[in-house]
Amino acid sequence: MLRDPATPDTHRGTILIIVHQQTSTPGRVGLALEKRGFALDIRRPRFGDPLPERMDGFAGAAIFGGPMSANDEDDYLAREIDWLAVPLRDNTPLLGICLGAQLLARQLGAEVAPHPDGLTEIGYYDIHPTEAGRELARWPARVYQWHREGFTLPKDATLLASGEHFREEAFRYGDAAYGIQFHPEVTLAMMHRWTVTAAERLKLKGAQPRDRHFEGHARYDAGMEIWLDQFLDRWTGTAAQHPAQACGFTAN
Is the model's pLDDT at 252 over the cut of 50? Predict the structure, then answer.
């Protein structure tokens, strides 16, 4: 449910959060942003929530994943791709996660497509940061993935990390726009839910069985949390330079 904002003075600003299912949440990313003093304005354009024409009311924007493809012809996805020109134009800190990264890649003229061999990454997979990626944060050996499509590197973007089956796993565009294919937002509770409600995807080529998801969580999640903290410290340091003004909505 959405309501008019009432942002306390202690808030560093408001982060626009875009999710693609009724029950979706920003998970650990949202909790970490709130811990850093940001209010969250959660919107679901798929279900009719509007997107702002200007970003001067927001400190940043984060676009999350979903089961749909960035190549689907649904009107709301086309509108989201077009809308991403707004935070890019206003140089507002921007983060795209999985589908969000693919939508950002498409806005920047890159391609989104399945793996040529039909492989997916669903579970924990190796990640290989570039030199630019290592300067950004300390990376875990493996990250949690849930995708069957990848993106090519947008023109003028900087590659931050490559993956086991998909070359482009993370990129930066300009000073403050990032696209990442993996899921730092996933909590243990979310992993339980995803592996039950979308269990049929665990049968796809390259996907890991359910028990390996939880084994991977026990081994690699602490490293993922370190990466997220270091990344958000940098990203929100930029976002704090964009103080929120009056916004149309905030999350309840």
Answer: no
CA atoms within 13 A on the CB side of 110: 22
Residue 238 pLDDT class (50, 70, 90 cuts): low
Tokens standing for residue 64: 């999350």
CATH architecture of 2-251: 3-Layer(aba) Sandwich (3.40)
Amino acid residing at 60: G
pLDDT score for 12: 73
| Angle of helix 210-239 versus helix 188-197 axis, rounded to 10 | 130
Domain spans in the chain, listed from the N-terminal domain onward: 2-251
Angle between helices 99-107 and 75-83 (to 10 degrees): 70
DSSP letter string, 171-200: EEETTTEEEESS-TT--HHHHHHHHHHTGG
Other Cβ atoms within 10 Å of 228 Cβ, number: 18
- Find out whether 162 and 128 touch, Cβ atoms under 8 Å: yes
With 80 as the cut, is the pLDDT of residue 11 above it?
no
116 pLDDT above the threshold of 60 = yes
